[in-house]
Write a structure and sequence with these properties.
It is found in: Secreted. By secondary structure, the chain is α/β, with parallel strands linked by helices. The protein is built from eight helices and eleven strands. Strand 7, helix 6 and strand 8 form a beta-alpha-beta unit. Helix 5 packs parallel to helix 6. The longest helix is centred in the first third of the chain and has 19 residues. The N terminus is likely disordered.
Amino acid sequence: MTVHRSGTNIPFTLPGRPRRSLMAAAGTLLAVLSLLFTLPGAAGASDIPPRGSAYLGMGVIAHDGQGGLPPADRAAQTEGVDVSSHQGSVDWSALWNSGVKWAYVKATEGTYYKNPYFSQQYTGSYTIGMIRGAYHFATPDTASGTAQADYFADNGGGWSKDGKTLPGALDIEWNPYGDACYGKSQSGMVTWIRDFLNRYKARTGRDAVIYTATSWWTQCTGNYSGFAANTPLWIARYNTTPGTLPAGWDFHTMWQYTSSGPIVGDHDKFNGAHDRVVALANG
């Protein structure tokens, strides 16, 4: 047998039973390749989570990391929690007794998903005494901002002036199902968000809260500042301080500071005493 390598003919004689040796070598190579492509971290369809499984802050640790927790004695902060179907049926009594006084519950995603635990979580938090609201996980590549605002308002994202219901929140962050910015240009993303906010206000009379991370906002909107005047900011940063805020906002209203709460869910701090939480609920 002759092996051709770099234009040179090199005589090479296989040892006994050449066909069986080649087959064995090929089998070994295939086994090694199979192992390599199934190691953790290898990219592939199996790495993409199922639609509907996204939640607040899903991409924060992966993109921004997680540092230390904030000091326990920060003045005028009110503890909160956010939950989704990942938490299942929540023990609201335990959370209330631990000092949690407000909550956000995932209601919808895109125009295709409703949280099956929404009733237990949304009603349960209210019954225990918390001020609570609903949030929508945005997927700007699947439907318009207007359509998603309607879907949210129709499926748990409404608002009523009862002193216990926070305005709906738009969770706009890294895309867990594909391109970080959902295939949109920065101007296209700004337009999508504006359409959602305008439609939500037309449906409910309230300005929705924006939940985001500064790094995503900078990457995917060009650090757009035009929503800050009317839209409360819920900033995601897992560290000792909220850090630099997106352009236009001089302060944050809420801060998601950890993804590993002491009892359940992601934990948050409202930037003010409990009466300020009530004020946001009342509009």
